[in-house]
Amino acid sequence: MLTLYGFDVSNYFNMIKLALAIKGIEYKSVILYPNQSADYLTKSPMGKVPALETEQGILTETNVILEYLDDTYPDKPLYPGNMFEKAKIKELIKITELYLELPARRCHSEVFFGQVADELTKKEVKRALCKGIEGLARCAHFSPYLAGKQLTAADIVFLYSADLASAVAGKLFDIDLLDIAPGAKQLMATLNEREDVIKIAKGRKIANIEFKKYIANLS
Ligand SMILES: N[C@@H](CCC(=O)N[C@@H](CS)C(=O)NCC(=O)O)C(=O)O
What we know:
The protein has helices spanning 11-23, 38-43, 62-72, 83-105, 108-113, 119-139, 153-173, 184-192, 195-218; strands spanning 2-6, 27-31, 51-54, 57-60.
């Protein structure tokens, strides 16, 4: 059986949980925070989560895991069969990660953990997030899903990355990020109504209590 390493507050971990839920794949979870212990580094080279243990070995990097799951469990596909269309899904995922997720992360400490980021960082992040959502708006369809009529892996990544980016933009810059991409808010609402997404959100809320204590003890 597959084993998923990570914790329920992690948006990347939740991307994999949602993919597993959509596909109805059985797995067990080992709850752990990212860490640099010698033991965990043998599993996850950067000490990050998620990591997925398969019968053949361990995989890390969320997009890699999503593709592995789709190739290995083809029921309820998360990528189209057509190679060009598949590449377009990967493009959407890459754009979401590089231009929304990663810039927003630079300000997570201020937005979620109350540690103030410096002004230059905030200026850069504000600019990057606006450019990122504008870029996504240019290549996404939002009809209703990111790439068209079918839910794909790009929607899973959008759901868990754009919500955090949007929280950063709202809290630090008073910008409604999702408003900049017509259709993005509706898609976010549609995804958030799904039972599997609601279940994951409940787990996240509960896990957040312990995670906040863990973070407070670190500082
Ligand atoms: N590129 C990685 C990023 C995963 C990631 O950043 N996970 C966070 C938790 S949400 C983490 O492990 N952070 C700890 C760290 O950056 O050292 C992926 O796609 O899986």
